[in-house]
Fold this sequence. Notes:
The protein has 607 residues and is of the alpha/beta class. The protein has helices at 7-37, 39-60, 66-111, 122-133, 135-166, 170-198, 200-214, 216-224, 228-280, 286-338, 396-403, 425-429, 446-451, 461-470, 474-479, 501-513, 531-545, 557-560, 580-586, 589-606; strands at 355-363, 373-381, 385-389, 411-416, 419-420, 432-435, 519-523, 549-554, 565-570, 573-578.
Amino acid sequence: MRQNHTKLKAFIWTLKQSIKSAGFLLIAMAVISMFNSVMFPLSSILLRNMTDHVANIYATGVWKSDFVWMASLYVALFFLQNTIPFSNAFVYFRTQFALEKHFEGMFAFNIRHIPYIKFLDASFMQNYTLVHNNVLNICRGILDLIPLIFFSCFQLIFTLVIFIQNTPWLCFYLIIVFVVQYSVSKYIAKKKYLLSKEQIKEERYQTYYKTLLTSKEFARELRIFSAQNRLFKKWRHYYELLKEKRLHLALKDINYTALADLTGIVLEIATILILFLLALSGRISVGVFVMLYGLLGHVREQAGSISQRLSGIYTSMLYMQDFADFISEYEGIQKNSDSRPNVQETALPYGKFQTLTFENVSFCYPNSKQNALKNVSFTIKKGEIVSILGYNGSGKTTLSKIACGLLMPTEGTVHLNGKSAADDPWAYSRYFGIGFQDYAKISVSLKENIAIGCSEYINDNEKIHTAVENANLGPLVDKLPMGLDTLLGKDYDDFGTDLSGGEWQKVILARAYMGEPQVLILDEPTASIDPLEELNMLSNIRKIISGRTAILISHRIGFARLADRIIMIRDGRIIEQGSHDELLKKQGYYAELFEAQKNLYLERRAG
Length: 607
């Protein structure tokens, strides 16, 4: 369930997660930062004492042995100040990698449980992109917090103590410099965050067109149709939109920061002049003047550093808030699904399949005003083969996605064995094996590609070989260089193997057959198959589905005739259903479609 975290609550949650993942490294960072924070104040105090000693020697001619150990300690501190950054950098990067691994892993882990319907919603995808693109900003906030507290603040406290002991009024200089620097930094940080949210839509478009121009997947069509220039102009349009606003903010950042720095410099010069006059009048020693002179510039730098870190943490807290809200929405789903018993022990949580019922089911995609399915009702019984037939855009693929549990109805209910699919979508989905028309080509081994259909059986060679046999994939496996272990695709490895559309379609069929599901859903399984191979595949499918429950999605009469019952769908509605012969006798939409496809086939044959 989604929680609306406050910035503070999100920050505390993020800090707990960081301690859990990199606690030891964060402690190491804190210790190094604390040790480093005392270096400069100690060096300043030693420099003051050494300067006073030199002035005293010059005035009296008496040499004191204290000067030797002070000089030795000063050199040692100088050496440490220049060596600590190496160990600090080592720990910093180790901590950064640990935090990135944790939060990137947390994001990747939780998105597994986001419902498919969310990815069809543009507003969700904008929020998704914002959170995903700024995971590293969360880590930077934690990485800034440690040196802020244990280095910058500690050093500032030590400096304040020195100011109070020598010239208390210098505390006002420090406060003014800090307030000016922090106000500017926070203002710019908030503007950058708001701009990043505002530009998510344009950034997604820019990334999309860049992908079109640079991806292998689209390289063929772009070159055949000479579309590169047109798409490049679109990419450049969005790039310029992004750049214009970012450049405007960057210039504002430069101007405001320069004004803050100038204010600090003017204050520093005025303060140095006052200190110089105090030293001339003898109200402070030369050593104190030298010490304070060195501290003033350092204080201005530290004030700038603290304000930058604070504003950075403030920005990170805004991203932490987005991240925590996003994760909390799906954490409950993740906990429920991860607490499931072993799938193989509860393969049929609803009992053996008996019936699948659609009852007044309607469905509307996000941001759409028209239903893709409208008041659809039917029942499929065990052992029945049903074909959903219709032209492209009729709603048949949407129906298949609802049937397998990928989508849930907007209205109406789906029942399996009399139980609502919405009661336990995970358990419901276990009954179905599906071969999608718009399938995913995943660049892993052939064996893993097949096992995706029922991944808990990835090490069950018998089930994998059964799926290979059912999909008539044996000849392809035999010709591949490493058989089932052959990597598919050459996008990430030159030793991979590219498959044709028809070969991929057989792989998708094998996915659907994997684990021998209770109900088989095949969505246009012969769409990319040549006619001769289609006849062989239809014959093979007929054997496989004989005596089993199957839903066949197609716009081809030849494929639909494998079914016991044909459901005709048009504009999201069921307009008629029955067997092939029954529908021909009705002389309705099916008969019209049958005659049209028969005439087309005869024309092609005559040609």
